[in-house]
Each structure stands twice: as structure tokens, then as C-alpha cells.
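Is this the right way to post C-alpha cells for a design question? Let me know if I should format differently. Anyway, here goes:
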């Protein structure tokens, strides 16, 4: 709408309304990241297969290295004037490394792959990938906000203390408290109130420490008890309002600040194509090669590569954080948003192509036999 009918867009979304829209979208994101953390089972990640460890680490390290290398080429032209190369490079690295765990899970569910070995491996890799990526992002934000190495080390140290405190002290206390409350009258209301208090406290403390409130919300969800009844209770209280009402505001707000019109010459579209190529090569290639080296078939390796290349919502969250911190200029922000959309949209077609090619190879082998 902003591209085709700018006057109508400005009438519906006047500039004064953007601050309110951003505020509501951030509330939606906080609840959404909390739900992502609730769905994450830390105990299962501890016991994940060796192949999942290799694939998840490769899918972070390889694209991160490529993103930092790409930043060397893009820095002079696209980084804001006040941003150091270190901040720009670190952020480009993390932007290339993200996998959208919720989108990946939804794709697996729609293709009936959730209960298959491939689906289980992909989900484990994506969950481990998300945890690693958000920890790296928290460290990058701390370095960028601190401005100097001493302040950055202090912020990272406080962040580690915060995480250890939540995992080893608050988490066991919370489990004991929830177990005591179970079965009492009005226990559901009390448990939800305690959970929401911890969510708000974690988000606030993360912001005070110098990392993003969304990391605190994710951590709050991750330490919640993992019994099915409690998860369903929290999801029932928060999912509808966050996913159906507030989260779409985040997409609208991201769209409003994405200025496609800034890409007004062939050079910029060439840069956009280069970034998409590097993103796909790093994430898809790194994941697929690592999967193959751990003994997966070529079909499953390419499928895992395609799934891990899905960036979706999580990428948009990271890009908006970078934009708010002033690390990304409007031009590079628009290009990276297009990259996030492209890498997400290509997932299902690539999976279909892999499936088709695998069937052709199987038929050929049968004929030859």
C-alpha cells in the first residue's frame, strides 16, 4: 500500500501512530518469545543426538562467518556513519545465522513430518540453533550498547549471572511452587499470575542489564515447568491475544518501516541478490553438508538444509532490533527484510523439489536393478 498508494497509506498510518504501533507490537513479541521459550524443552536439548549438535553448530558458524565477511564489503556503503565496523559485522553475522523455529515447526506439521526421524532431527537442530543464536545476539547487543570493551564484558558477565540465576535457582523454585499449587482452588489463576510476573520481571531485568527484553521473555518461558497441563494453560491465556492480535501489528510495523523505494537502481538490487545468495549458501549449504557428514542421506541432508534456511519471523525480530539500535541503515534494513522473505518463501518449493528428485532417483535405481 505504501508503495502503490502512498497518500492512502499515510492517511491510515499517520506518522504519529507509529510509536503506538511499535509499543503494541513489542508487547506481542514479548508474549510470543515467552511462548517459544515455554515450548522449548531444555532437558531434551541436553540429550540431543550428536548429529543434531554438529548440524546446529555448523548452521550457526558457517553463515555467521560468511555474514561477517560480507560486512567487510558492505560496510563503507551501507553502515550508518556512527556505527563501528565491529558492531555492523557482528550484527550481519547473526542476521545470517537465524532459523525461525516456529515457522519450521509449522512447515513440518503441515507436511506431516513432525513425528518422522527427519522432523525430530530438524526440530532439535532448530531449537538448539535458536538458543545459540539468541545467546550470541544478547552478547552482540551488549557489545554494541556498551560502546567499549570494559562495559561490554561487565554486561556479558551480568547476563551470564542472570541466566545462571534463572536456570539453577528460580527454575527449581518455580517447579516446586507450581507442584504445590496444583489441585488447589483457583490454582490456575495463581499459576498464570506467577508466570506472568516472572515474564515481566525477566524482560525488565534483561533490558536493565543491557540486553534486549525479548531475550528475558524467551528465558522466562524456557524455565517454566514443562508438564503438558501447564503449557496448555499458558498457551490458552496468551496465544490468542499475542498471535492473532498483537503479532500481526509487528508485521505491519515492519512493513511500514521497510522502504522498498530506496532500492532504486540496479546496483542495489544486485547487492540484494548477493545477500540472498550468501544467506542461502551459508545456511542451506552449511546445514546440508553437516547433515551429510553425520551420516544422513542426501535427501534428508537437503531437506534439513532447506528447513534450517527458513528465517521468517525470528529474522524480522532481529532486523528490527538492529534498526532500533541504529546499526542498520534504512537501505540495508529493506534488503535484509527481502532476504528474510525470500529464504522463507523458498522452503516449501525446495522441499517439493528434493522430494521429486528423490523419487526419480529411486525409480531409476529400481529400473536398473
Amino acid at each position: 500500500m505504501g508503495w502503490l498508494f502512498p497518500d492512502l497509506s499515510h492517511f491510515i498510518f499517520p506518522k504519529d501512530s507509529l510509536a503506538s504501533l511499535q509499543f503494541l507490537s513489542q508487547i506481542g513479541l514479548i508474549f510470543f518469545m515467552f511462548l517459544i521459550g515455554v515450548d522449548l524443552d531444555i532437558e531434551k536439548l541436553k540429550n540431543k543426538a550428536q548429529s543434531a549438535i554438529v548440524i546446529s553448530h555448523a548452521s550457526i558458524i558457517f553463515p555467521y562467518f560468511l555474514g561477517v565477511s560480507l560486512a567487510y564489503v558492505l560496510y563503507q556503503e551501507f553502515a550508518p556513519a556512527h556505527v563501528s565496523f565491529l558492531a555492523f559485522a557482528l550484527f550481519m553475522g547473526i542476521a545470517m545465522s537465524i532459523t525461525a523455529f516456529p515457522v519450521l515447526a509449522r512447515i513440518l506439521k503441515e507436511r506431516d513430518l513432525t513425528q518422522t526421524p527427519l522432523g525430530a532431527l530438524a526440530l532439535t537442530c532448530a531449537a538448539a540453533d535458536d538458543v545459540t543464536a539468541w545467546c550470541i545476539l544478547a552478547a552482540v547487543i551488549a557489545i554494541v550498547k556498551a560502546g567499549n570493551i570494559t562495559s561490554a564484558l561487565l554486561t556479558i558477565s551480568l547476563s551470564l549471572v542472570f541466566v545462571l540465576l534463572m536456570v539453577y535457582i528460580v527454575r527449581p523454585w518455580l517447579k516446586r511452587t507450581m507442584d504445590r499449587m496444583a489441585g488447589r482452588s483457583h490454582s490456575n489463576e495463581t499459576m498464570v499470575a506467577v508466570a506472568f510476573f516472572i515474564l515481566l520481571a525477566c524482560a525488565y531485568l534483561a533490558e536493565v542489564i543491557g540486553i534486549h527484553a525479548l531475550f528475558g521473555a524467551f528465558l522466562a518461558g524456557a524455565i517454566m515447568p514443562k508438564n503438558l497441563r501447564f503449557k496448555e494453560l499458558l498457551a490458552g491465556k496468551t496465544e490468542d491475544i499475542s498471535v492473532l492480535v498483537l503479532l500481526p501489528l509487528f508485521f505491519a510495523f515492519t512493513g511500514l518501516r521497510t522502504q522498498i523505494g530506496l532500492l532504486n537502481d540496479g546496483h542495489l538490487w544486485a547487492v540484494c541478490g548477493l545477500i540472498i545468495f550468501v544467506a542461502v549458501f551459508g545456511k542451506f549449504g552449511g546445514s546440508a553438508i553437516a547433515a551429510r557428514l553425520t551420516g544422513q542421506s542426501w535427501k534428508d541432508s537437503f531437506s534439513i538444509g532447506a528447513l534450517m534456511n527458513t528465517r521468517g519471523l525470528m529474522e524480522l525480530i532481529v532486523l528490527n532490533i538492529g534498526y532500533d539500535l541504529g546499526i542498520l541503515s534504512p537501505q540495508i534494513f529493506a534488503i535484509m527484510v527481502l532476504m528474510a522473505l525470500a529464504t522463507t518463501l523458498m522452503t516449501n518449493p525446495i522441499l517439493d523439489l528434493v522430494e521429486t528428485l528423490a523419487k526419480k532417483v529411486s525409480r531409476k535405481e529400481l529400473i536398473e536393478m
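Format looks fine. Someone answered above. Worth noting: The chain has a mean pLDDT of 83. The chain has 16 helices and no strands.
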